[in-house]
Every structure is written in C-alpha cells, then in structure tokens.
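Standup notes
- HV: blocked on the assembly model, inputs below
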Amino acid sequence: NAGVTQTPKFRVLKTGQSMTLLCAQDMNHEYMYWYRQDPGMGLRLIHYSVGEGTTAKGEVPDGYNVSRLKKQNFLLGLESAAPSQTSVYFCASSAGSSNQPQHFGDGTRLSIL
Amino acid sequence: SQKIEQNSEALNIQEGKTATLTCNYTNYSPAYLQWYRQDPGRGPVFLLLIRENEKEKRKERLKVTFDTTLKQSLFHITASQPADSATYLCALDSSWDMRFGAGTRLTVKP
C-alpha cells in the first residue's frame, strides 16, 4: 500500500518549457488536490478534483492545468514554466471534502531557471 | 482577508517538557481544524482533527484545543522527545477549502 506517489521527485526546467507532474493514489479516494509550498507560506491549493473527470480551481490556479482521467491519477501541467513557479509541489487525496484527513505524497521539487 | 498565523517560526524546548504551539485565524469560520506533522523533504502527515463543537481532543501524548470564540487552536506535546522535532502545520477545514498555516518548526533538545 503505497498511499500517494508523486513523480518525478526533482526537476529543473528552463523558462518557457512545459512539463507534467503525476500523482497516483491507491486508497480509492474521490478527492485529490495539488498544492504548492513556498518558504514562509502555508500550503496553497492550486487545483482540486472531487471525482474522476472533474476538476476545479483552488486559490492559485493561474499558469497551471490539471486532468483527472482516472480516479487514481491526478496530473498537474505547466504549459509555459516561469521562475515564479519554482516551488515544492504536493499532491494529496482524501475520502471526503471535509472532516477527513488528507494524505500527502512526498512532493516534487521544481526549479525554473 | 482570511489569515492563519502560527506562533513563531521556530520553537526550541528541552526533552521532557511540554511543547505548546498556537494557531490563530481571522475572517474564517472553519467547521473543523486539523494538525499535521511535516519532516524535512517529506509531505505532511495527519495527526489530529477537532470539530468546532469539541473543546479538546487527545491522542497519546498529543492534545489539541479549539476555541471558536478566540479563533485559536493550541497543540500540545507532553513529555516531548527529540523524535518530535519537526514542523507542525495547522489547517482550517471548511468543505474542500483546506487552508494551511505556514507552520512552526519544533526542535526538542536532549
């Protein structure tokens, strides 16, 4: 039982490049989330999904897109990377929208040069 | 605007003492409040959840209080150990919108 798995763990991009971060969970959770974590700031929600085929914007969605084609997978895309997107990205999943703990992966450390 | 503040970025205590971490919030009415632990290079790990109508919750050496009038939660670790050293995050839970504090880095010295 791996929980939430994120790939890759590290990545360096040049400004303007694109990439996709992959998140996979094996807990059959309906809800999945993408956060970014920057020094001195709390985790900020980028996008979330309440089930397969659905996505919604969070607090800081600009510059990112997501897809949830399969229940167990949630993809985060950067179409044209910018230095301001240098951050640590965390994926999480939960069984419900509230009153439920979120289970996190170990993050993807992304640097945009 | 909504704000979540966790007391001081870092807290250093001696082994065996009780660590008390504070989470204050404004312009928010969460139905639940959660606490997480985060170790360097790892994702947050859930510790405790407390409902708005609960005053206190305990789990082994951990205790959480939730005062909706003061808009504050206190997180206590009794008989602290060096292994408790980590960053602790509070999170305000209101439907899908979970808002996290920046965290307090706790160091327990032997």
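- HV (later): unblocked. Chain A touches chain B at residues 4, 31, 33, 35, 40-45, 48, 50, 56, 90, 92, 97-99, 101-107 (CB under 8 Å). Chain A has a mean pLDDT of 95.
- Next: hand off to the docking folks.
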